[in-house]
Amino acid sequence: MKHNPYLDAAIPSPCYVCNEALLERNLKLMQRVQQESGADIILALKGFSMWSTFPLVREYLKGCTASSVWEAKLAAFEFGREVHAYAPGYKTKEIDALLPLVNHISFNSLSQWQQYRDQVAAAGVSAGLRVNPEHQEAETELYDPSAPGSRLGIRAQDLEHADLSGIEGLHVHNLCECDSYALERTLQAVETKFGHLLHKMKWLNLGGGHLMTREGYDVEHLIAQLKRLRETYDLQVILEPGSAVAWQTGPLIAEVVDIVENDGPIAILDISATAHMPDVLEMPYRPTITDAKEPGVLAHTYKLGGNSCLAGDVIGLYSFAEPLQPGSRIIFEDMMHYTMVKTTFFNGVEHPSIGILRRDGRFDLVRSFTYEDFRNRLS
Asked: Angle formed by the axes of helices 219-233 and 180-198, to 10°?
């Protein structure tokens, strides 16, 4: 049987483990997309901000996109290439902090653009507007920026007769872990509603949600869409994926602490769904566990529960070939994107460490957490 490197004793539990070889595999695919399409790809820090991997990521990607001052600082100070910013709203002090850090900044409304346009121009930062194509592709309403009544982006009807002098780009984001055909449909909506503006722009940012590293994604179709767009409107095309960068690049390692009984066995783990995998409860979704299957398929079925006091801190029912016991390792797959970035110190439960499985097979523990980290979150 092939050895599973995530079971090595050198890896503590709980721990997020980024597999460097798998991350580079994704980055190489993105490099190909950039080279063949002429588009630029930047990292969306909201999806993956493990800055200990930035020395590798910046070999392939043009920069980062930030949704806040703190993310912009992380991009500028730790990544060190281009920084693009977008937020639903900016305070004056945030604009003051952002403009020295960023190359592009996108505004969510005409009023915000008008408020800060002179300051942006004086800083020499390229300004854009986020627009809403009113075209829905995301399957989950929580992640659908084009849902009716959305607060994100300006509708075409609200741009009529607007003074856009000084605006150099448009920003569109309505995808969530979508394929290239969802992008094609989105572009049809964008060109129908905003095509007359694209000829006047220097750049078009297509946001994130382009899951080009997922198995079965039609990369050739993506490249063709980006090339056509760039050539038709003679502009820079920018993608800012988060999930796609870190897709299937490493697990969250957990361990069974106890087994209790209540209408069946319940395994208490040393991680928490609400604190360490919040999308399990928010989306909701069922994470994949290595060597586990649906309940009843294998010989031993358990409900997996977290270690917080929240009654609903439950991951779900899974079956295993061998019985679980205290100390058994549980490997939650694909936990690098939109997981670490959402963790909390709720209940003061132990926060998972962060490590990197290097390309040569070595494990590096790059971060562990202490009581002081928990204490310093509040005052």
From this structure: 0
Can you give the pTM of this predicted structure?
Answer: 0.95
> Across the strands, what pairs with 181?
none
Radius of gyration of the chain (CA): 22
> Reduced to 3 states, what is the DSSP secondary structure of residue 130?
strand
DSSP at 178 = B
Q: Using CA atoms, how far apart are residues 175 and 158, in angstroms rounded to an integer?
A: 22
The dihedral of CA 104, 109, 110, 113: what is its sign? negative
The tens digit of pLDDT for each residue in 159-202 reads 998 999 999 999 999 999 999 999 999 999 999 999 999 999 99
- Under 8 Å between Cβ of 366 and 356: yes
Helix axes 20-37, 219-233, angle to 10 degrees: 40
Here the contacts of 307-310 (C-beta below 8 Å, separation 24 or greater) are: 307/257, 307/268, 307/269, 307/270, 307/271, 307/272, 307/349, 307/350, 308/272, 308/274, 308/275, 308/346, 308/347, 308/349, 309/347, 310/272, 310/274, 310/346, 310/347
The residue type of 330 is I
- How confident is the model over 328-349, as pLDDT tens digits? 999 999 999 999 999 999 999 9
The DSSP string of 49-83 is --GGGHHHHTTT--EEEESSHHHHHHIIIII-SEE
CA 232 remoteness from chain centre: 30
Contact 252, 307 (CB under 8 A): no
Q: What single letter denotes the amino acid at residue 107? A: F
What span, in angstroms and rounded, lies between the C-alpha atoms of 320 and 298?
5
